[in-house]
């Protein structure tokens, strides 16, 4: 059985988790084009090697970050997202285009 260590819930069966892609810098939604925003949302770097990824423990809805080697599928470590994102970011309202 393949398992993953959730920082909140401990070692759990991998079927309880879902990966949501690489952790990457988010552009300011109000200041980028629709095309640039779609690229941010839908395209990944697809890096070979160690990457940081968003994971969610589905039964508890707990989001965290995992460092995983994409070549070996080895999870190096998992930790709360608060270790990386230490402050809230206020988003600006998008200006209407006319």
Task: State the main characteristics.
Folate-binding fold; 6 strands; 9% helix; 98 residues; globular
Structure description:
This protein is mainly beta. The protein has a single domain (3-83), classed as 2-Layer Sandwich (Folate-binding fold). The chain is built from one helix and six strands. The chain has one helix spanning 34-42, and strands at 3-6, 10-13, 17-22, 50-57, 62-69, 74-80. The strands form two sheets. The chain has a four-stranded antiparallel β-sheet with strand order 3-4-5-6, with no helix packed on it. The chain has a two-stranded antiparallel ribbon with strand order 1-2. The radius of gyration is 16 Å and the shape is globular. It starts with a strand and ends in an 18-residue tail after the last strand.
SS summary, helix count: 1
**Order of strands across the main sheet:** 3-4-5-6
Can you summarize the main beta sheet? Answer: 4 strands, antiparallel
Tell me the β content. Answer: 35-45%
Q: Give the terminus-to-terminus CA distance.
A: 55 Å
- Domain count: the total is 1
Q: Order of SSEs, N→C?
A: EEEHEEE
CATH topology: Folate-binding fold
Helix fraction, binned, reads under 10%
The Rg value, from CA coordinates, equals: 16 Å
């Amino acid at each position: 059985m393949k398992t993953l260590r959730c920082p909140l819930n401990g070692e759990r069966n991998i079927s309880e988790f879902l990966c949501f892609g690489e952790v990457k810098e988010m552009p300011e939604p109000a200041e980028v084009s629709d095309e640039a925003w779609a690229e941010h949302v839908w395209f990944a770097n697809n890096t070979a090697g160690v990457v940081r990824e968003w994971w969610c423990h589905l039964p508890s809805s707990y989001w965290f970050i995992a460092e995983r080697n994409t070549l070996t599928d080895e999870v190096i470590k998992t930790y709360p997202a608060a270790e990386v994102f230490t402050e809230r970011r206020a988003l600006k309202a998008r200006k209407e285009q006319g």
